[in-house]
Amino acid sequence: MKRRYHVVVIPGDGIGPEVVEAALHAIGPVLDRLELERVEAGLGYYERTGRPYPEGFLDRLRSADAVLKGPLATPVGPGGYRSINVLIRQELDLYANLRPCRGYPGVSPKVFDLVVVRENTEGLYAGVEGRFRDEAYALKIVTRRGSERIVRFAFEYAVSRGRRLVTAVHKANILKVADGLFLEVFREVARRYEGRVEAGELIVDAAAYNMARSPEKLDVIVTMNLYGDILSDLAAGVAGSLGLCGSGQYGESAAVFEPVHGAGFDIAGKGVANPVAAIHAARLMLEYLGHRYGDEQLAAAAQLLDKAVEEALTVDRALTPDLGGDRGTMDVAEAVRRRFEALLSEGLAA
Ligand code: NAI
Question: Measured between alpha carbons, how far is residue 249 from residues 12, 19, 254, 342 in Å?
Answer without folding.
Answer: 17, 18, 8, 30
